[in-house]
Amino acid sequence: MTTTTDPTPSAGGHEAPVSGDVPMLIGGEFVPAAGGQWTDVVSPGSLTVIGRVPTGGSQDVDRAVAAARAALPGWRGLPFTERQRVLLAIADALFAAAEEMSLLTAADTGNALRTQARPESQTLATLFRYFGGIAGELKGVVLPAGEGQLQYSVREPVGVVGAILPWNSPLMIAGMKIPAALAAGNTLVVKPAEDAPLTILKLAEICARFLPAGVLNVVTGRGSVVGEALVTHAGVDKVSFTGSTEVGRGVGAKAGERVVPVSLELGGKSPTIVWPDAAQDAYIDATVDGILTGMRFTRQGQSCTAGSRLYLHEDVYDEVLDRVVAKLKTFVVGDPLDERSDMGALINQKQYDSVRDYIDEGQSRSGVVTALDGAAQVPSGLDGYYLGPTVFSRAENDWRLTREEIFGPVMVVIPWREDAEVLAMANDSHYGLAAFLWCHDLDRAITAANRIESGWVQVNQGGGQLVGQSYGGLKASGIGREFSLEGMLESFTSIKQINVKLASAPAPRPVTPGP
C-alpha cells in the first residue's frame, strides 16, 4: 500500500492520509476483486474519500481459502522457532511503522490520534511480539502409563481460520487473532470491517514481507457477502468473530451447522459501581478519571467493554456525578487527526443516527435528568459524524437505554444503597463482558468481583486489557477467550491423544501386595 497525504493539514498539523486504490492480499499477491469492483473508503472525521478497496465476493473467498489450505502444511510443519522468528520480525516492522499506522487508523476509524489511534497501533505490535514469544508453549503432555506404553498428547493447529474483524478497534482486534493463530501454526483468511479496512490492508502489506505466500490472506467486501461466504465455506476449519451480538448469533448458528469451532466476542453493557469510600478525598480524582476511561469516551463510547451503566451510591451520588460532568466538559471533540482532540467521530451515518435516537429518547424521558448534553461540545463547521459525551442521571435499571448497547458516548447513572441491590442490578443484563468496581474496602470489593457475572472485572482501575490476560465474555457477550496464552490454546489449537504399545517392552511385572 502506498500512502500519501492530503495537501491540506488538519488543525493539529497532521495531514490526512490518502491511500488510493488498495488491493487485497490473496496467495501472497495484492489483487483486485474477481468482479473488478471497488468501494470508496470514507473517513468519518472529514467525510472525504481516503482510498478504495476491492468489493470482494464469494469467488475471492474461494481463492483465499484455497491459498490458505495450500500454505497450511508448510506453515504448520515448521519448528516453532521459525514461526517465532517471523512473528518477532513482523513486530519490529510494526513498531517501526507505528506512526504511519496511527495516522491511517485515525482517518480510517474516526478515533482520535492521541488518545486512541497511537495506543492501538502500539498494542498491535506488542501483541505480535507477545505471541511470537510464547510460540513454544504449544505443548502436550506424557502420561506415565507404564513401561509397555507411550501415551502422549500433542497440540495441533485447527487449520484454516476465518477471522472477521470489527470497525471500532480493528488493529487491536486483529492483534488478538492473527498472531495467535499464526503462532499456533494456522493459516488465515481475514475479513476487515467494511467501514475501516485500510489499516488491516496496511497490516497485511507488512506481514506479507515476512510470511510465506498464502499463510495470511485478506478479503475486503460486505459482511453479508464476504463474511457469509467465509463462515459457510467448507474449507474453513475455525471461525473467529468480533462484532455485535445480533450478527454473532447468526455466525454461531451457521458455524454450528458445519460443526466447526467458533469463538465470538460480542456486545456488552458493562456496569461501573462506585462505593462511598472511592469518593474520599484521597481517591475521588482517580475514581472519576477511571469512570471516564472505563466508559471509553475517548473512543466515542464505541467499545464493547464500555462501562455505560454507572451505579453511584446515594451517599456520594451528587458529588461524584458533578465531578464526572465537570471533567467531561473539558473533553475536546474534534478532528481525529488533531493532537488536541480527546474524542473523534462516530464511524458512519447509520451509527450516528442510532446513537442520536437513543439520546433523543433519553431527553424526552420523564423523571430522567440530562446531566450533560454533549451537543454543545461539538464545534461548528466540522464535517463528520460527531457527538459529544452525554450523561443521563436518575435512570432506572429497566429503562431501554440502561439495557441496550448504545455503542456511543452515552452513559446512564443509577443510584443505589445496599450491596445486594446494586449487584442484582449489575447482573440483571443479558450481557456479561466487563465490569468496573471502585471500592477500597478490599473484602467488600473482592466479594463483589466474585459475584459479578462478567468475564473481566477490574477493581479501582478503568483501563484496557493487559497483554497476556484472558479476555472474553459470558452470556450474550460471547464464547471463548483471546489476548493470552490460554486464549491461543483454546481458540487456535486442538488436542490429539496418541497411545503407542511398545512391542519390545518387558511384560508388566506383578505387583506384590504390601504388608
Describe this structure in words.
With 515 residues, the protein is of the alpha/beta class. It folds into two domains: 258 residues, Aldehyde Dehydrogenase, Chain A, domain 1 (3-Layer(aba) Sandwich), CATH 3.40.605.10; 189 residues, Aldehyde Dehydrogenase, Chain A, domain 2, CATH 3.40.309.10. It is 36% helix and 21% strand. The chain has 15 helices and 24 strands. The strands form seven sheets. It has a seven-stranded mixed sheet, sandwiched between helices. Helix 5 links the parallel strand 9 and strand 10. The protein is globular. The termini are far apart.
Quick summary:
With 515 residues, the chain is of the alpha/beta class.
Strand content: 15-25%
Mean pLDDT over the residues? 95
Count of strand segments: 24
The stretches of 5 or more residues where confidence is low (pLDDT under 50) are: 2-11
Structural class: alpha/beta
Q: What's the CATH H-level superfamily name of the largest domain?
A: Aldehyde Dehydrogenase, Chain A, domain 1
| CATH fold-type name of the largest domain | Aldehyde Dehydrogenase, Chain A, domain 1
Number of helices: 15
State the strand order across the main sheet.
16-17-18-15-14-20-21
Largest β-sheet summary: 7 strands, mixed
CATH class of the largest domain: Alpha Beta
Shape: globular
* Count of domain modules: 2
Q: What's the alpha carbon Rg, rounded to whole Å?
A: 25 Å
CATH architecture of the largest domain: 3-Layer(aba) Sandwich
N-C termini distance: 78 Å
**Helix content percent band:** 25-40%
